[in-house]
Each structure stands twice: as C-alpha cells, then as structure tokens.
Design goal:
Blueprint: H1 2-41, H2 46-71, H3 75-95, H4 97-111, E1 120-123, E2 126-133, E3 137-141, E4 147-151, H5 152-158, E5 160-164
C-alpha cells in the first residue's frame, strides 16, 4: 500500500508526460526538417549540413529531456541536466575553437564559386589540384602525386589563388 502512495504523484503526471513527449517529438522533428531544408536551400554542402544537424539534434533532445523531467515534477533533475549541459558546452567551446574556425572557413570555401574540386590552386607555398574539401580540411594533390592536407582556417590565413579553374 505504501508503494502505491509513493507512485501516486508520478502516476498522476504520466498523461502530461506523454503529451509532452508526443508534442515535443513533433516539434523536434519539424524543427530539424525546417532547419535541414533551410541549410539545403542556402546550398550548404551535405557534409557540413550533417554536422550542423547533429548539433541541432543534441540541443533539441536536451530541451525535450528537460521538458519531460519538468512534466514529471522533477524540476531539480531538469535543473541538473541544464547545468551539466551548460558546463559541458563551455568545456566543448573552449576545446573546439580551432574546429569552429575550420568549420566556418570550410563553409565559406565550399560556397566560393572559384574554389572547386578539380581546380588547380596555390595555397601559401603549396600548389596542386583540389581533390577534397570537407568540414575541416582541404586536400591538394601536386604534379608529383604528393597530397597536402591543409586546415580550412589555414587556407584563409595563407590566402589562395586559382591557377586553373575547372
């Protein structure tokens, strides 16, 4: 009997929990689709879209988890989740400064109409054909077959010139 008395407050909140889960998932799914289509509309490359959507997914699921904890009356747990997430975000932001710089530079390089796969470019003292552009690195292959891997932010810092456009 005592067991059911302990569970009674939680059982009374279950309908609210399931409604929060149902509508939260719909909002999460819709937001992700709209964001994904928006990134596609402004012609962000697929690999970079994937990175952005992963970050959006994590944030949306975190928000939904906090809302679900609140719907069960577990506000202290929700506060703990939020505080932990803020601490984790600060640690990640500090540790990913270079990654963010490479990512942003990669977006600009991928959108630049002159910086395309197959083009022959000069970056700093390196010269070669662009064989790969991703969210973090650019790969050049020189006339001797040597492949240079350059961080996107370094491409911006060193400057680049198109020697033969494709």
């Amino acid at each position: 009997m005592v067991f059911f008395e302990v569970l009674k407050p939680i059982l009374e909140k279950l309908p609210r929990f399931f409604w929060t889960l149902f509508f939260g998932y719909i909002i999460l799914y819709t937001t992700r689709r709209v964001f994904g289509r928006g990134l596609k509309l402004i012609k962000i490359p697929a690999e970079i879209r994937g990175i952005f959507l992963s970050v959006v997914d994590i944030l949306l699921w975190l928000i939904l988890t906090v809302a679900l904890a609140n719907s069960l009356g577990l506000s202290k747990l929700a506060l703990g989740i939020t505080g932990s997430a803020a601490f984790l975000a600060a640690a990640l932001a500090n540790g990913t400064r270079e990654f963010i710089g490479d990512l942003i530079s990669g977006i600009y390089l991928a959108r630049d109409k002159n910086f395309k796969l197959g083009s022959w470019v000069k970056i700093g003292d390196m010269e070669g054909e662009i064989i790969s552009i991703d969210s973090r690195k650019v790969r050049l292959k020189d006339k001797n077959g040597i492949i240079y891997v350059i961080a996107n932010s370094e491409v911006d810092k060193k400057g680049w010139a198109v020697l033969n456009a494709k």
